[in-house]
# Entry
Amino acid sequence: MVSFKLLILCAIIGVALSVPQGSNRKNQSKENARRKASQPSQIVEDSDEELTDQCPEPNGYFADAEQCDKYYDCRDGVITEKLCPDGMVFNDFSSEYEKCDLPFNIDCSTRPKLQKPDPSLHCRRKNGYFSHEEPNVCDKFYYCVDGKFNMITCPDGLVYNENAGICSWPDEAKRKGCSSGDVFQFQCPKVNETFGLTHPRYADPEDCQFFYVCINGDTPRRNGCKLGQVFDERQSRCEWARKVPECADWYKGQLTDEELDRLENPPTTARPSGNAPSRRKKPHRPSQRHAEEEA
# Structure
């Protein structure tokens, strides 16, 4: 009887002792799971911090992700931050080359930030092409190098294109105040395209040498005839001035009749006939004896 009671008492004590141990394991498991859950975010943060200070490749030149004129020079894994000259942007066509270029040649839409400008007279930045300060001066612009400007005038009929950095037709440049109507003061007459020309031509009412081509019948572009010629509206082409009665005297005071005649009938240069003796000297060939002596 005593033995049976002793067995029951031992069982009760064993159960009592096993409960705290199971509870501790459960609490320990929860703590381990909490710690593991916190580790991945810490690893990501550390990885991001390392990426900003590391080169994508051990050697090369790499564009900044946000600023178009900033780039990085990597040498043996050591990164150096650099800036292009003010007004230029980094050309990332190849990581092998360190090249700063004009903004017109590079797409900066995904990294639009730029360094603070350093302007000077006529130059909004130290380097680049810039339109004239007066919005109605469409055919003049400035080319700036290291803060020093040079003014350039577009050919007649063209305006400065701010998006391309070149001279363009007004309808291509699309500048406010520099449209075809603003520049030329000419409106294309309405035409019936069913019976008319797609790009009809019209004489410039102020200048016999020039005419307008109306693209698709409504957008004027100014063109000119070569020196000595005028636009013949009847034939819709350039013709020698003397053949167009209303413009026959257009070049009077500018060119003499003799000069106009030479332009219309340029002198021809006579070519030597096939039987004419050649003036080229025959090459001198050394005699065999002379060749042996030299040898």
User: Anything to note?
Assistant: The domain at 117-170 is CATH 2.170.140.10 (Antimicrobial Protein, Tachycitin; Chain A). Residues 4 and 10 are 10 Å apart (CA to CA). Confidence is low (pLDDT under 50) at residues 1-52.
